Amino acid sequence: MDLRSQPTMTRLENLPGPVALTRMMAAMVELFCDSFATVPRRIILDIDDTEDRA
């Protein structure tokens, strides 16, 4: 069975529930902040999920 198939990826992407997503978010923020010698006072997330093929 090919575990790289689209149905498998979709299941993995949709598997985490709200608690797991919150924990993952906290871990990513902590890793990001740990990458600085001094933690930034502010983090700005510029998120644009539109697909632009240009």
Structure description:
- The chain is mostly helical and 54 residues long.
- The chain is built from two helices and no strands.
- The chain is extended and about 45 Å long.
- The termini are far apart.
- The model has no long low-confidence stretch (mean pLDDT 83).
The helix-strand sequence is HH
C-alpha end-to-end distance: 36 Å
Mean pLDDT: 83
Task: Tell me the Rg in angstroms.
Answer: 16 Å
Number of discrete helical segments: 2
Poorly predicted runs: none
Helix fraction by DSSP (H/I, runs of at least 4): 40-55%
Q: What sort of overall outline do the alpha carbons produce when their principal axes are compared?
A: extended
Instruction: Describe the oligomeric state of these chains in a short phrase.
Output: single chain
Report the major sheet. none
Q: Which secondary-structure class do the elements indicate?
A: mainly alpha
Tell me the β content.
under 5%
Number of strands: 0
List the SSEs and their pairings.
Elements (H helix, E strand, L loop, with lengths): L5 H9 L3 H17 L20
Structural key phrases:
mainly alpha, extended, 54 residues, 2 helices
Short description:
This protein has 54 residues and is mostly helical. 48% of the residues lie in helices and 0% in strands.
